[in-house]
Amino acid sequence: MSEIINRVAQSKLVTFDLEELYPQGERKVLDIKDWLYEGIILREKEFRNHVDAYNWSAYQDTCVALQCSTDAIVPGWAFLLVASKLAPFAKKVVVGSMETLETSLYQSILENLDVSPYADKPVIIKGCSKKPVPENAYLMALEKIQPVAKSVMYGEACSSVPVYKKK
């Protein structure tokens, strides 16, 4: 009987796992619908009163997705006003969903990523994750790695899909 050889372990394949870059910290959603008249009309004076009376310290050291979950038409200044109150407390504030927040966090990390370890190597961008890695993070990772890598695949070493190969 011949010895079983793990060819994946012996290959020069480098795994890029976005989950390893997952930014730590608490995330919160702040929905301003309750500060609107009947949940859909922004009355400036009432809105400002809600903003001024709100306990912003609950967002200390958090990342915040600011949104309005109703079909209200919210003027841009309203989100700016709320963000200005969050600024002394929150680490990051975005207007949008939790996925928008996660994408923004990954964008900051990937923009500053040193890709030299992936130069001229076959790279596999690991596809499954237990953490909420947004789809856009995979695209940003490819954009960052592709210019330096020999090839890029997606998935797992045992079942990957070729995405790019340098000519």
Walkthrough of the structure:
With 167 residues, the protein is of the alpha/beta class. It has 2 domains: 7-23 and 114-165, no CATH class; 26-90, no CATH class. The protein is 30% helix and 22% strand. It has 5 helices and 7 strands; from the N terminus they run H-E-E-H-E-H-E-H-E-H-E-E. The chain has helices at residues 7-10, 44-53, 76-86, 98-111, 135-145; strands at residues 14-16, 26-31, 62-67, 92-95, 122-126, 151-156, 159-165. The strands form 2 sheets. It has a 4-stranded mixed beta sheet with strand order 1-5-6-7, covered by helices on one side. Strands 2-3-4 form a 3-stranded parallel beta sheet, sandwiched between helices. Strand 2, helix 2 and strand 3 form a beta-alpha-beta unit. Helix 2 runs parallel beside helix 3 (76-86). The mean pLDDT is 92.
What's the quick description here?
This protein folds into two domains: 7-23 and 114-165, no CATH class; 26-90, no CATH class. The protein is 30% helix and 22% strand.
